[in-house]
Amino acid sequence: MEWTLERLLAAIQPADRQAGEAAWKHWDAIAKPLRSLGLLEADIVRIAAIQGTADVQWGKKAVVVMCADNGVVEEGVTQTGQEVTAIVSENMTRHDTSVCCMSSVAGADVIPVDMGVCRPLVSGVLDKCIRRGTWNMTKGPAMTREECIQGILTGANLVSELKERGYGLIATGEMGIGNTTTSSAIVSVLLGCPVEEVTGRGAGLSTEGLARKISAIQRGVEVNRPDPADPIDVVHKVGGFDIAGLMGVFLGCAACRVPVLVDGFISAAAALAAVRLCPAAGDYLLASHVSKEPAGEMVLQALGLRPLIRAEMCLGEGSGAVAAMPLLEMGLAVYRSMTTFEATNIETYVPQT
Ligand SMILES: Cc1cc2ncn([C@H]3O[C@H](COP(=O)(O)O)[C@@H](O)[C@H]3O)c2cc1C
Ligand SMILES: O=C(O)c1cccnc1
Fold first, then answer.
1. Does 193 sit in the ligand 1 pocket, CB within 6 Å?
2. How far is CA 158 from the centre of its chain?
3. 175 CB less than 6 Å from ligand 1?
């Protein structure tokens, strides 16, 4: 059954605290210094609560890469032309992008999705194209409200399908020239922060380019007056099809009780919009890394998330989210395989909390 927005939001319930407590109990019985694996432990506990059982396991892993073009690129807010979106999206099918190389190491499948790239793509990219690029947000809404909802439902339906196919851990990724512009616009509106504080150089931008980018976002916000209390209003006016799709992935993962790794600034902006739409969805998110973009840390804080990795990455594509997978798997290996204090006859260790 395909999701409607009403059914999707109604299906999202807070994660299972009791399962989380049981997972802490198991961690604390393992023969090692208490809580010494830090966030690895906390994240496995989070996943236990998401899955509703302390018997944590996740099966296959995937990174969903939402690809789309952004009309605002005509304002000169990016270093490269928008044709790069299509090229890199197609390179995903040949396993020739950064996230593809990293996913091979992490054992994750890469699933590129055309949410609205400017030209038709090869068939290896899942065709969910809403429209061939958004409109320029400095002149009016980037998309209609209906298109935004279509994007959200596309992402959520994809998660349901992936869950049926045995995927139990999903990373979010994106490819869309200009999407740090849309992300900064969303974050500025949702967090009520000045545009210049949440806007960076994206995939590389000169100082003049950065000034153009800030001005374009300011004009986009002034022209559209998005309502910060209505995340769909914000994303349809100043967001992109990739971000709408990512919102749907986060909401779909929450509805299907699948843990989802947030990548960098763009994914985090989409996660923020998803959580503002449905606060309970926040329980299902895991932060992977903190983006080097200026507001990377700020958005994670607003989401109440602690990143596993601080590596000054700002690549996108889902690269940071995939990088966190092996760490989580190491945590899971200790959680599932290690001997306990009791079994190994260590009686003298008195855990101090
Ligand atoms: C060759 C290339 C590969 C990329 N892979 C990810 N991004 C990253 O850069 C884009 C966002 O930056 P901006 O808003 O400045 O355009 C997104 O596509 C993001 O995934 C790339 C960018 C480029 C140029
Ligand atoms: O943090 C990110 O997701 C990011 C930052 C800059 C460019 N591309 C992606």
1. no
2. 14
3. yes
List the domain boundaries for the chain: 60-326
Which atom of ligand 1 lies nearest, measured to the CA of 98? 5
What 3 state SS string does 288-332 have?
A: CECCCCCCHHHHHHHHCCCCCECCCCCCCCCHHHHHHHHHHHHHH
Atom of ligand 1 nearest to the CA of 87: 1
Say if residues 185 and 221 touch (Cβ distance below 8 Å). Answer: yes
Listed residue (175, 177, 69, 174) closest to 118, CA to CA: 69
60-326, CATH topology level: Rossmann fold (3.40.50)
Distance CA 181, CA 213 (A): 7
Supply the DSSP symbol for 76: S
The answer, yes or no, to whether any atom of ligand 1 lies below 6 A from the CB of 233, is no
8-60 tens-digit pLDDT:
999 999 999 999 999 999 999 999 999 999 999 999 999 999 999 999 999 99
293: left (phi over 0), alpha (psi -120 to 50) or beta: beta
Spatial contact of 317 and 173, defined as CB atoms under 8 Å apart: yes
